[in-house]
Fold these 2 entries.
Entry 1:
Amino acid sequence: MTCKKIEELLPFYAENELGAEDRRRVETHLTGCSNCRRLLACFKQTEAGLARFPQLEVSPALMARLKAIPSSDKRKARSRTRVPFFLARPSLQPVLAGAFLLLVFASALVFTPAGGRLLKSLDRQFHLGYSQVEKLYAKAESLADSLNSKKEEVIVALKTASPLSRDDSE
Amino acid sequence: MLVNAFAPKVFNMAYQFTGSRTEAEDQSQEIFLKVFHNLPKYDSEKNFAAWLLTLAKNHLIDSYRRTRWERKNRDDFDENLPRQAQTADSPEDALLQREEQTVLWRGLNSLPSDIRLAIILKEIQGKKYEEVAEILALPKGTVKSRINRGKLQLARLLRERKEEGL
């Protein structure tokens, strides 16, 4: 058996978990191999050494920090749930999303130079449109007046030209 | 009550895993934050200690993976523990034992994280294979083979240092 194979079996040998045949092979190898004997000794020292590491005391400061967690966690949970409970209803979510987008758009218009320029141009266009509408309205009014006067003239002309009025004169 | 019962276990597990008291304190606090946060999800039919230590194990390994590069050059590795881990009577034996403990302590911290945790739980904290398997959520055979591999690696390191005169 090679040293490599023996090394794989050593932990089981140290814990008495090998079958009789493997155990005998390992022991035969160990008798003639000082390297593997030293490894077995170090393996046992490793186990003993690991078991000797002490369990440390938790410092009072850490204990205080750990004990403070549940109450601070509850406070956080309360502050998290009080306001959003109403706002977090699924039915309100599209409305909130829309309002948020509107807010973002309005902020972009108000707080950026490009937005300011856009607002000014919109304002100018609005006033131009408004003055055109006013002019059209004034034209429409004058057209209505002239139509009224024409209407009266037509009525007079019709009256004078009608055969009924000729009969009357006869 | 929960903190009194489990803080020493969690803190020591974190300390033996990180090798640093300061880091172990920070990790313990983060672990307990997670524990309190996840308490509503705990299935009362399962072993509470195993559930809590599994959560601690997951946190330690995740945190180790996230900051692995920083740890390579860390300067807060605690070299004092080996001094507290000696039981020899004579000054010569005490010195030798301290040297061996230092080799093991450094060697433990250089093992892969999954093997290191298995060794910490079984060999340092004294848990049974079944308990370690439950905490690590692994078959008992896998746990056993990881622990054996880790101990063999430490034994080789110890043999090497002894040949160099420690």
Entry 2:
Amino acid sequence: MTEKSVTDMILDKFTQSVAGDSTFKGICEELLALMKSEKPEKERIKAILEKIVDENPKP
Amino acid sequence: MRILSLEVENIRGIRSIRIEPAGENLVVFGPNGTGKSAIVDAIDFLLTGKISRLTGEGAKSLSLKEHGPHVDSREDLKNTVVKAKVKIGDREIEMQRGMNKPTTLKVDPKGDTMLVKACLAVTELGQHILTRREILQYITSEAGKRAKKIMSLLNLDRVENLRSMLVTLRNEAESDHTQAQGNLEVAKGEIVTLLSLSGFSEVTCLAKINALRQILGGSELSRLSTESMKEGLSPHPFSTERPALTRDQVVNTVADIRTLIGEKDSIVAKEAELRALLTEICSEAQLKECMAYEALIRVGITLTKDNVCPLCDRKWDGDFRQYLEQKEGSIEVAKEKRIHVEEISAALNNRLMILRNEVSVCVDAHNQYALKAINDAELRKYLSDIDSWINILKNPLGFFESGSWPSPLQELFETPFVEPNLLTPLDNAIKEIRPEISTQQNAWDTLTRMQDKWERYARLVKDEAQKRIIKSRSESTLEYFERARDLVLEGIYDAVKNNFEKYYRVIHSDDEGGFASKISHEGAELNFQVDFYKRGLFPPHALHSEGHQDSMGLCLFFALNTYLVKNAIELAVLDDVVMSIDCNHRQGICTLFREHFSDKQLIITTHDGAWAKQLRAQGVVKQKNMVHFTNWNIETGPIYELEKDLWDRVEEDLKKDDVPAAAHTLRRNAELFFDDVCDFLSASITYRGSHQWELGDLAPAAISAYKKYLKKAKDNAHKLKDSTKFEELEVLEKKSNEIITKSQIEQWIINENVHYNRWRTYNKNDFEPVVQAFKLLFDLFNCSTCGSLIALNEGRGQNSQLTISCSCGKVFWNVTENVGKK
């Protein structure tokens, strides 16, 4: 078993949870793409988590 | 990949050595300090370009270039080389690596380079070598360290980095949300004061605003907004350019300050907690250093651009930001302390901000009503003290360290100052003042001020909602990620656990046949527990003996190896790993090797000659693959003997017509052989104080035991009416008697040649029948299928049997006394 496959298995399960959570509506794909990328950066993940909030805030 | 031949030049304790295991198991044995581990290091270096013994914990001062070559070859690295001919599939490939260029692996034919590299990728995990140090890491280490070791084997660094990043994001989001909540509370408090409300709610605000609008003849609003606040109202003729403070507002402010003072005890307690935390941090140099380091890394992350270090401006080879983020994640304790400091500081800051706002209103009131009762300078100093505290709470550690921590926060909330100097005079002054402005102007002014307050409130509501969603997302992201990781890892640990138990039961079938274990992942820890004789699960080093722990380490290594390595590399190197395991359980290990790892090439080093012989006798390793390191010195390296196949060596001597040499070889090896046989059959032998027995002592004792057990087995077969077995043993008895008789007749020739030096009178033709006789004699004690020596085994339990058997079970004689009797 190589590192990639263990990591991929984890990210696959993570994808299922995120995709089924309406809180992530609109940012799900972008978030997962970044998480699966070779070098995900914290600031970029943070920007994605903040993104939809700017467009559709819930007062 | 299997090693066909290995050549080592000037590596560690070795000067020059060539070994040819021909792709089969190999045992290197000999006393401590004879260079056995150098063979392990050489293989490690060839496969990985590193020597794991020179890395890791306790090896900081060691380096490959300095300590990898033979001590006298450090200046001549060109001659420090490991070469091997290996077999991958049906390809025979030569590999070579030198200390002068450790990262370069030469492969011949070059076309097979990719094949070799693909095969060696798995060696990056370090799962090709097991040492005693590794066993300790598996078994006796703390759960956190074990988790790191196993996670590193599973190559989960990237997963851990992602998790660490998500933890940081979650913590930041929580901190941001707490701050946003505090700001919103301050804004609500201001509105409550302005509108003289008993508590904040949008409904009561709307009602109050509508009441004010009614005073000014305005219509009722159904919802509040900054724009609608004065909608439809004309500017009041008495309005001032600057919205005035109302009398009620000042009264409310005084009441609010008194409420805050009522919280004094909890605020003072929080400050004390903060000071205690800062004292702890400052008194532990390492913790303080870690916190400073963490702060530096956090700043570094924000300043890093294009992989250039912001401190030294050098380009980093790789992803510098990711490197810093990994570092940040590794300083967990410092992070926890920082977050705790930030949390307390944020809570205190929140109360101080509210106090500051309220006191600011007091200052405005002072100016507006020109209240003589309040000392202007004193009031401004008080305000300045609050500002100082707010400033300090932005960087509490810095101020604490520099010794500029102000007088206790308690003083700001002490009634001796606030009450007599601020609140009571203000209270009294206001009582004497009649409302100077009309109700209409008061309503207009309040609406004007309310517009600002409501705008701020609306902005902070939006901000708090945003921060709440980000916090919720950050928490969910981390939760989903950790849950996914745990699910996947649990699956992996289950697979590893099942193999671990299976292997352990093979070794300890006699006393722990129902052995079970549990591997579970909790946070950053990997808990490993094992069953102790059905009395429950315990840590592996809690109740089991050291020998059992060694077995566990070996089994866990192979269980992980099975999962991780699969068939990518068939090689496994075991460096002196069974030192605490007793002889009976070593037999179990031999069974494990034969039954579960026959597809692997095992390279085993041991200081224990008995274990080496057991491996040979149990058919794990052939005699020609026994390398005996007898001694070592710095000039020559290991002094060793290659135990070639006996019959090949005798044949070589006879080809040269050197009968005395052949006789000497045969005699010496026959002594070693019968020494093992006597041991395995528990043969009776005349005791010698010198502990040295000759062929004349050993062979008759072994043969006598053999005959005795064969006869017993035959008798038992007869008693048990097992005619097939009886006939089989009768044939064997007849055949063995012939062989034994023949060998005894011939034995004197060996003695003659060795002891009386009459070798000139004998030639090859005279000696060949002797060789043939001894070959047949040796075969009596070896299984023709598995090659192992037959041995006397005593089972356990009430109905246990005494048997003579081989490793594979083809030879199986029941030699139990009193068989058939109840």
